[in-house]
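For reference, the entry.
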Amino acid sequence: MTSNNQALEINALKQIQVPSGKKVKLSDYPTDDFQLDGHRLDKEKTQEAHTALEEQLADWQEKLYAEGKQSLLIVLQARDAGGKDSTVGRVMDAFDPNGVNVVNFKQPTEPELAHDFLWRVHQQTPRRGMIAVFNRSHYEDVLVTRVHGLIDAQKTEQNLQHIVNFEQLLADSGTKIVKIYLHLSPAEQKERLLDRLNDPSKHWKFNPGDLKDRELWHEYTAAYEDAMTSSRDHAPWHVVPADHKWLRDHLISLILLRAFEEMNPSFPKAAFKASHYEIPEV
């Protein structure tokens, strides 16, 4: 059951939800703050309350799996060092891994390039009863491809319309879609990239190409702002402040809690009467 404070926080999520079909400015959204009744969330109290939130998410997932009629798709997008991997590890830890599929979309393979850009994506969407997490997604085809000049403005607009139609198809088929952009400040990204350079145990995370993309910060901002015009009531975008991991994790969990409450899965009724059965002694 949702607590009174959780209900307030869920209602306040409209602050970070992108309006349906509207163009937004990312500069209007904070990277390090979230206000509730004019006050910032307290880190210690928020972390204390997070365990109960994880238990609620686990309960909802069990109902989703048992019901087997709906599915949940979580789309994660972020700049380099934005925290996609750690988000998957921290937030999705609330779920039974048997009911979750995490998909990492990397550079398309030759067979994938021989099909339309959504071909490889559609195969990874969650079946009924399941949760799928896209760590990067079909939005790469209106972000990276656009910024690096692989597609022009007309193709970008066309691909975005295909995405809107694709997500409508999924929603019509019983898939709830939650899209999350991890909103990182330039200063925080710099700290995280430096951390990867200075800590030998994190060198494997560092990609020199990330520095080139950092130089294209404003180009990526424009691309993300256009991509978020795909926000719809059935597939909303959320601009989650990501400079502080504890705040990021809490807000994403609240977003998922709201999604589950809107889906409202339930345990199926048994086709038998439990009172008719006894467990035999052995």
In short: The chain has a mean pLDDT of 94. The chain is about 45% helix and 15% strand. The longest strand covers residues 175-183. Residues 4-265 form a domain with the Rossmann fold fold (CATH 3.40.50.300).
